[in-house]
Write a structure and sequence with these properties.
90 residues; alpha+beta; six-stranded mixed β-sheet; 3 helices; 34% helix; DUF4031 domain-containing protein; DUF4031
Length: 90
């Protein structure tokens, strides 16, 4: 399932959401491609999605969840990638 949190994370003059999959990175990359997110927006285990694309992500089928649930679901699926493993890109 594709999950997204509210766009509340500031950076580079914008607010950002986190887009994840609790199934696989392949599912996440395919969804991000449909959304029009560039691969450079992928950070370890999630895509950073600008607020301008948040509604489109929901329209495409992403499920809105609180940030804590998003992280918990990533961990439960075994897809959470801590910073010390950041050099390994799936």
């Amino acid at each position: 399932m594709i999950l997204i949190d509210e766009p509340r994370w500031p950076g580079r003059g914008h607010l950002w959401s986190h887009l994840v999959s609790d199934v696989s990175y392949a599912e996440l990359h395919a969804f991000a491609e449909m959304l029009g997110s560039p691969r450079r927006a992928f950070d370890r285990d999630h895509y950073d999605v600008p607020a301008a694309r948040f509604r489109a992500a929901l329209w495409l089928g992403a499920t809105l969840v609180p940030s804590r649930e998003l992280t918990a679901r990533l961990r439960a699926a075994g897809l959470r990638r801590p910073k010390h493993l950041a050099s390994r890109t799936p």
